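Q: Predict the bound structure with LV4SOB2L.
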Amino acid sequence: MDLVLIESLAVDTVIGVYDWERTITQRLVLDLELATDIRPAAEHDDIARTLDYAAISERTQAFAAAHDFALVETFAERLAEALRGEFGIAWLRLTVRKPGAVAAAAAVGVRIERGTRPGAV
Ligand SMILES: Nc1nc2c(c(=O)[nH]1)N=C([C@H](O)[C@@H](O)CO)CN2
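A: Predicted complex:
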């Protein structure tokens, strides 16, 4: 299985369960692993035959700016659903980190996998 990668993508959004968090924008840091077969794109040297990491990054930042969830779980689930639908992604792994949310931790967050891994039985 081939992967297109987006690592440490910074996005700004309203996120959090506490009252003070509903009035500010905070940064989340995302890692995405997106399953695709890269061979057609490589064979034809054609961006149209692969997952465009620039377009997906831009869409992810726009999604973050447009939403104000309480939980990082909801952010992850809804973003995964949107990206899979819009870009036809068969399988993805998404890590959402919220740096600074727990002072003693470098970051906290969630990791989800959605869809069917190509080649899985
Ligand atoms: N599993 C989760 N735990 C917590 C979340 C969350 O989104 N998922 N959020 C918070 C607060 O918003 C926290 O990030 C504020 O510092 C607490 N726990």
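A: Residues 16-18, 21, 71-73, 98, 101 surround LV4SOB2L (CB under 6 Å).
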